[in-house]
Amino acid sequence: MKRTGNKITIFLLAALALLALAAASGAAFLRQAAAPAPEDAPSPASEATAAPKTVQDINTVGMTENKSIYSEDDPQSLVYFYVTVQRGDAGSDTDHSFAQVNSAVRFAEDSHVDNDILARAIVQVGNADGPQPGMLGYDATESNATIRVRGNSSSVRPQKSYKLDLDDEAGLWRGQSNIALNKHNFDATRLRNKLYFDLLRPVENISSLRTQFVRLYIKDETAGETSFTDYGLFTQAEVPTKKYMANHGLDSEGYLYKAISFNFEMSDALKNFDDPEFDQAAFDQILSCKGRQDNQKLIDLVNLIADRSVDINEIVGNYIDRDNYLTWLAYNILMGNNDTTVQNFYLYSPLNSQKWFFIPWDGDNCLHWQEDELEGLTGNYGSWEHGVANYWGVLLHQRFLKNESNRAELAARVDELHETINRDTVNALAQQYDEVVRPYALAMPDFYYLGNTAQERDAILAGLGDQVELAYQQFYDSLHELMPFFMYQPVQEDQTILFRWEDAYDFDNQPITYRLQVAATPDFAAPVVDVSGLTSTEYPVSAAQLPAGTWYFAVTAETQDGRTAPAMNKIQVSDVYYPGVDRTEVTL
């Protein structure tokens, strides 16, 4: 069967159910009316007046998403976007060709770069035959939007992802003015992101995003084109904005931040907008403010998390909504979406509430291990990047997870989600979506850049359900593993290089020792320093052993029963990642 049911069938079934319920209620009412009242029953006039309900405290209100926002979506439909790219006015920030737009690189040295190049565009919606009457932009003859490249690492790929920002007078498309069209270059299935958000839709205590498969056609008038070119398949993902909050029943006047590289710790970049030392460029490296322009509430939260005298369960409860936090953490763990430690989430707080909530963002890297193994990328990941260990480097998560009862509660939430998000349900939904995706993923232009054969893609698609079960098992494994730690940059003074690192952490509270290695190459083929059995978290090395130059170092922790944990540092040398390794320049 192509799908589990169409809208008409669902509507009819719902109508029949309501009619049956009404009939049953009516019959019950008639039976009550016909039955004689007991002799001691009070007359209607003597009934006590019902006590009024107590008004709910705003700080006890959880995530109030209006789930009906998803009711009109057809997960297996395909929308056609037609975009005509034009230069903006001379001297404006949109006076660019489409070639210049596509040249924007938004990712360098493993971090986001604010490098947006915009052009103007006419955005229209239609069907396979072209723009259609009654749809967005049909009568438009002048630009009604801007277009730019979106994404970080994907911006350096041949096929780009795009953001369309509709002008106010252009109207809205499905209540949205910011339209993100994602190519998902690193996903052979081309459906992981939609799978991630659609599985999340019915989950309580958290909000999701509306998503849509899109066929994109572009006419580049800046290059003299007079007809539309097929750019293949994209996934549109709703962008959390003030409009998003209003559409989902949230507080559009509240606080909303997109995490760029945010670890819930204080930094020089985290200041309020009215602070004389506020640096917008520095702030944009850690957060992007999408809501109320006031950072004090977030600063107060960060200071609370840093204050070890404040019980973490007071913070995750009174200031971070506990149900939402547990659900967000459990869902990302179960979906193997490990790139969610310092990015790929939003933080939201209603204006008059002290509570903060997590909103997920970007799921195209979920359930990825099988594809990584096929493409030889498993070495890019550290052995800690799964389960609870993956989140250990963020102070908020670490403080929460050190509590045994919190880990038990998280396990219960993972188990609860696993009842409906498992091998069978994921495989079933992935197969439904592939009916839409497959004809385009295996056709030009997308097939040219797929990066996998059709057979490899089929194997990856068929294995998505297995990846959920792997993530589930890895979570339980992580509850018995030694937690990782960070290494600091060595201190150089008095002809000594002092190597330092954090304590590792063991849930079983066994004694821990450390092994330090230092070498001239990141593979440690010939270590100059190799000392084990250390009980301290620092070790001095004579400058005579380490002449001036570049040196690589690694520390491994070990328990009495042989469990080990590497450091969470990770470097890239000549396009090769080395998890658990860092480098330093010796100048003595």
Q: If you had to describe this structure to a student in words, what would you say it looks like?
A:
The protein is an alpha+beta fold and 588 residues long. 27% of the residues lie in helices and 23% in strands. It has 3 domains: 67-240, no CATH class; 245-478, no CATH class; 482-586, Immunoglobulins (Immunoglobulin-like, Sandwich), CATH 2.60.40. The strands form 7 sheets. A 7-stranded mixed beta barrel has the order 1-4-6-7-8-10-9. Strands 19, 20, 22, 23 and 26 form a 5-stranded antiparallel sheet that branches. Strands 12-11-13-14 form a 4-stranded antiparallel sheet.
- Radius of gyration using CA atoms only: 28 Å
Q: Count all strands and give the number.
A: 26
Unreliable spans: 1-48
User: What's the pLDDT, averaged over the residues?
Assistant: 91
SS strand fraction: 15-25%
**Ends distance:** 71 Å
Largest sheet: 7 strands, mixed, barrel
Strand order across the largest sheet: 1-4-6-7-8-10-9
Which class of secondary structure composition applies to the elements? alpha+beta
Number of domains: 3
**Shape call:** globular
Helix content: 25-40%
Q: How many separate helices?
A: 14
Features:
Immunoglobulin-like, alpha+beta, 14 helices, globular, 588 residues
Short structural description:
The chain is α+β, with helices and mostly antiparallel strands. The protein is 27% helix and 23% strand.
